[in-house]
Amino acid sequence: MKIVTIVGARPQFVKASCLSRLIKENKDIQEVMIHTGQHFDYNMSSSFFNELEIPEPKYNLDIHSLSHGAMTGRMVEEIEKVLVKEKPNVVVVYGDTNSTLAGALASVKLHFPICHVEAGLRSYNMNMPEEINRILTDHVSTFLFCSSEKAEEILFKEGIKKNVIIVGDIMYDAFLHVRDKLLPKSLVGLPYKPKEYCLITLHREENTDDVQKLKRLFDDLYEIGEKYKLLFVFPVHPRLNIMINKNSFPARYYHWIKFIDPVSYVDMIALEKYSKIILTDSGGVQKEAYWNKVPCITLREETEWVELVDAGVNKVAGLNRTKILDTFEYLMNNEIEFPEGLYGDGNSTKKILDFLKMMFRVV
């Protein structure tokens, strides 16, 4: 069996690493990886391949820094050429990026079966490019692997009922691998005292591209820092870095906000594990906060990871000043219980590969 895996963004490298490691153990399965180039910064891309032992992509399309339409169109065109050449049995795409949608569109037009890992997620916010990507990808995919029962329920409501399989979250497999094998090596150089800092990440366009929103958020962080004497460690996404460099922010922000370069996956897990509270607009970081048993404030108006909100471990605040300050105070003064098993048992990768082997009759 030949599998073509399409990745392009940081979370996809993490997810793909799990399947790639397992495929290596199966001599009857060949994996061909296409990297679209959507994330091109070293710490957003190359370091992940090295750190997580992902095989060097056979194809690097080097497509980035374009508008959504131009980027997706270019990717479809180039992925199509690779698929015609490689003739895979199945194409695997992950998550909800432009790379995901482009891979799905190129595959369905050429009649190659599509395996969508992390299917069935919905924020119901059509202003998010990711929401459009995930909906369209789900509706053209052949096999849909879900992280939870809620995701399966959403697909059923949309009329997608064939080959929908709950396998748990493949990111949990990756998290466990890092926690057990790599994390101890990362902690040696951690320059922040455990539980004496908070971690914040921000990368979505609606947050990073509005300088007034950023200033209001930085004001909130400064106020919290002054009140609780907590440092905010802030790995800066390339998109946000452009905005910071283009604008002049008050020097006082830098007293409690420590802006740092993007970090590797292992270092990110270490930063999450020892933070007091995590603030993020990233879906992946929301889940990693849960697995690290660290309370999370989501800097969006909604989240597709509703199980975390229902469990009380994730509070949705958007960039609303009152909500952020009140939620932070609540989390500082209340013990949060973290239920087990919201996203499977850490064996998602095996379940996915076993299903594909069965479908394509691989012994």
Element layout with pairings:
Elements: E1 2-7, H1 10-23, E2 30-35, H2 46-51, E3 59-60, H3 68-86, E4 90-94, H4 98-109, E5 114-119, H5 129-140, E6 143-146, H6 149-157, E7 164-166, H7 170-186, E8 197-201, H8 205-208, H9 211-228, E9 231-235, H10 238-246, H11 253-256, E10 257-260, H12 265-273, E11 278-280, H13 283-291, E12 296-298, H14 306-310, E13 314-316, H15 321-333, H16 348-359
Parallel strand pairs: 1-2, 1-4, 2-3, 4-5, 5-6, 6-7, 8-9, 8-11, 9-10, 11-12, 12-13
Helix pairs in contact: 1-7, 1-16, 3-4, 4-5, 7-12, 9-15
How would you sum up this structure, described in words?
- The protein is 47% helix and 15% strand.
- The chain is an alpha/beta fold and 363 residues long.
- The chain folds into 2 domains: 2-169 and 345-359, 3-Layer(aba) Sandwich (Rossmann fold), CATH 3.40.50.2000; 184-333, Glycogen Phosphorylase B (Rossmann fold).
- The strands form 2 sheets. Strands 3-2-1-4-5-6-7 form a 7-stranded parallel sheet, with helices on both faces. A 6-stranded parallel sheet has the order 10-9-8-11-12-13, sandwiched between helices.
As a percent range, the share of strand residues is 15-25%
CATH topology group of the largest domain = Rossmann fold
The radius of gyration computed from the alpha-carbon positions, rounded to a whole number of angstroms, is: 20 Å
Q: Tell me the number of helical segments per DSSP (H or I, 4 or more residues long).
A: 16
Task: Please bin the fraction of helical residues.
Answer: 40-55%
- DSSP, total strands: 13
